[in-house]
Design a protein that fits this description.
This protein is α/β, with parallel strands linked by helices. It has helices spanning about 50, 60, 80-90, 100-110, and strands spanning about 15-20, 20-25, 25-30, 35, 40, 65-70, 95, 115-120. The protein has one domain (about 15-120): MTH938-like (Hypothetical Protein Mth938, Chain: A), CATH 3.40.1230.10. It holds the Pfam family DUF498.
Length: about 120
């Protein structure tokens, strides 16, 4: 899916996505990553099971976003209870959804000026 959205220079927006890839601004990525309006973590490499735990999201939790959108690939999966508790303890919202939905939702929340993080699991071939 190609998306068009005006954005300020230096801000990370998801401008397209499809099975196994996501485009941040003009760069296509084919591996798991975390995107925030002012931060891009491209070396986030947990397995899907690890992505559902608090440990794998430590780099995201350290940046204290208002909300984390966890894209779990093509289907929505349930996270580890510890991840839910960690987010609640820090006052961080957590939404778990499939990766395409997380991509779409990220841009909406980012356009509102909110501190959002999308941790995206991209299925590999």
């Amino acid at each position: 899916m190609k998306m068009t959205l005006e954005h300020a220079a230096g801000r990370h927006l998801i401008t397209g996505h499809g099975p196994g890839w996501v485009r941040i601004n003009q760069t296509c990525h084919r591996h798991n990553l975390v995107v925030m309006p002012d931060t891009l973590i491209t070396d986030w490499a947990p397995t899907l099971t690890e992505a559902l735990s608090a440990g794998s999201l430590a780099p995201v939790l350290a940046r204290t976003p208002d909300i984390i959108l966890l894209g779990t690939g093509p289907t929505r999966l349930t996270p580890d209870q510890g991840l839910l508790q960690q987010c609640m303890a820090q006052g961080i919202g957590l939404e778990i959804m499939d990766t395409p939905a997380a991509c779409r939702t990220y841009n909406v929340i980012a356009s509102e000026g909110r501190k959002v993080a999308a941790a995206l699991v991209l299925p590999s071939d």
